[in-house]
Write a structure and sequence with these properties.
Pathway: Cell wall biogenesis; peptidoglycan biosynthesis
Organism: Moryella indoligenes
Shape: globular
Strand order of the largest sheet: 21-22-1-23
Helix content: 25-40%
Mean pLDDT: 94
GO cellular component, one term: cytoplasm
Distance between the termini: 24 Å
Number of helices: 14
Catalytic activity: phosphoenolpyruvate + UDP-N-acetyl-alpha-D-glucosamine = UDP-N-acetyl-3-O-(1-carboxyvinyl)-alpha-D-glucosamine + phosphate
Low-confidence stretches: none
Number of strands: 23
InterPro entries: Enolpyruvate_Tfrase_dom (IPR001986), Enolpyruvate_Tfrase_sf (IPR036968), MurA_subfamily (IPR050068), RNA3'P_cycl/enolpyr_Trfase_a/b (IPR013792), UDP_GlcNAc_COvinyl_MurA (IPR005750)
Radius of gyration: 22 Å
């Protein structure tokens, strides 16, 4: 089984370029099947979840042409199936975006229940509520979501909770519905704006994305388009925290500084120096981080996907910090792995009390989900000695060539597939 092995203790220094946003790309790929005209998508991240989604779209009849690693042409005029059978789709959360896309275009969909990282309960009741409000009949049967409607009509939908997935899904279905739809208490994340912009580039009439009220006037059909995906906010934040955790100095390029404000603010509170440019941010670490408190919130608050990276940094701070996870109840599973490395963290419900230590020690640890896995790699790069991180398939779901980008910053890290390769790395690292 593949794993990362690394020798820590060296500051990460240099420049790194952020890839396209995975979470935006997944919604955009699903939406690309809603037109019979060709679509070109650029700045596509080359990660496992994206390739699974492309395979699923291909399996329902779309023609996929991979121009290069980051550019794809999609022609969905040949789609002849609304039943998604791919077993791989059960492993990614974004499988549910095909429900909204297929329901909007073909008035029916049959898609596996979503999978992804086990970070807590993520029900799809708000998705189904929205589809039903538009006039669809929705059932969950045998691990699948089956939806259908003779026609879809605009509606006034108030989401009971702020849900990124439900906002995108309802937005897609409503964009090809008859009449007007209003989504209130909508999520405001950057990738929602990106999906809305993509839909508008195909002829949709969506206003208000990025606010808590989205207004949609349904149109009859979409046309083709060429669209470039925004940079990945969470990948950018991960490398910003890499500078803090390893006491390094990193210029993170190809990002949108406005999207990073909550992350930059916390790093400044921890004592890092932040230098902001038009499309990049430089983070200069400090010899010892200051403690602070973090509470995850929907955008524009501090992202839940950055909580493990923040917790790892605070484990190395001078003092006691409190981290409150208000989005997913199982997002502290990485704490046990950090404890193996010498961190002092006590979890009580949705709160972690972190007493900083001066240094961590290398240990064999495992990635328990996508973002926690990335944070644990950063912990290993700050620790004394050798660290191995197993179950890296989680990390590969959302970070493009993670180890190569880290090597470009001076990290001593390798992706190894067996014990022989691990031993070779350790001999070279002595």
């Amino acid at each position: 089984m593949a794993q990362y092995i690394m020798r820590g203790g060296n500051p990460l220094v240099g420049e790194v370029t952020v890839s396209g946003a995975k979470n935006a790309a997944l919604g955009i790929l699903a939406a690309a099947v809603m037109t019979d005209e060709p679509v070109r998508i650029e700045n596509l991240p080359d990660v496992r979840d994206i390739n699974v989604m492309l395979d699923a779209i291909r399996e329902i009849g779309a023609r996929i042409e991979r121009i290069d690693r980051h550019t794809v042409n999609i022609d969905a005029s040949s789609v002849d199936e609304v039943c998604v059978e791919s077993d791989n789709m059960k492993r990614i959360r974004a499988s549910y975006y095909l429900i909204g896309a297929l329901l909007g275009k073909y008035r029916k969909a049959d898609v596996p229940m979503p999978g992804g990282c086990d970070i807590g309960s993520r029900p799809i009741d708000q998705h189904l509520k929205g589809f039903r409000a538009l006039g669809a009949d929705c059932q969950v049967m045998n691990g699948r979501v089956v939806a259908g409607a003779k026609e879809l009509a605009g509606s006034h939908i108030f989401l009971d909770i702020v849900s990124v997935g439900a906002t995108i899904n309802i937005m897609m279905a409503a964009a090809l519905s008859r009449g007007r739809t209003i989504i209130e208490n909508a999520a405001k994340e950057p990738h929602i704006v990106d999906v809305a912009n993509f839909l508008n580039s195909m002829g949709a009439d969506i206003k208000g994305a990025g606010t808590d009220v989205i207004r949609i006037r349904g149109v009859e059909r979409f046309h083709g388009t060429t669209y470039s995906i925004i940079p990945d906010q969470i990948e950018a934040g991960t490398f910003m925290f890499a500078a803090a955790i390893t006491r390094g100095d990193i210029m993170v390029k190809n990002l949108i500084p406005k999207h990073m404000e909550a992350i930059s603010a916390k790093l400044i509170e921890m004592g890092c120096e932040i230098l902001e440019f038009d499309d990049s941010i430089r983070v200069v670490g400090t010899a010892r981080l200051r403690p602070t408190n973090v509470k995850t919130l929907p955008y524009p608050g501090f992202p839940t996907d950055m909580q493990p990276q923040a917790g790892t940094a605070l484990a190395l701070s001078r003092g006691t910090s409190v981290v409150i996870e208000s989005i997913f109840e199982s997002r502290f599973r990485y704490v046990d792995e950090l404890a193996r490395m010498g961190a002092t963290i006590k979890v009580e419900g949705n709160t972690a009390i972190i007493t900083g230590v001066e240094k961590l020690s290398g240990a064999p640890i495992r990635a328990c989900d996508l973002r926690a896995g990335a944070a644990l790699v950063l912990a290993g790069l700050s620790a004394e000695g050798i660290t191995t991180v197993s179950d890296i398939q989680y990390i590969q779901r959302g970070y493009e060539h993670f180890e190569e980008k880290l090597k470009g910053l001076g990290a001593e890290i390798a992706l190894v597939n067996d014990e022989r390769e691990a031993q070779k790395f350790m001999l070279c690292a002595v």
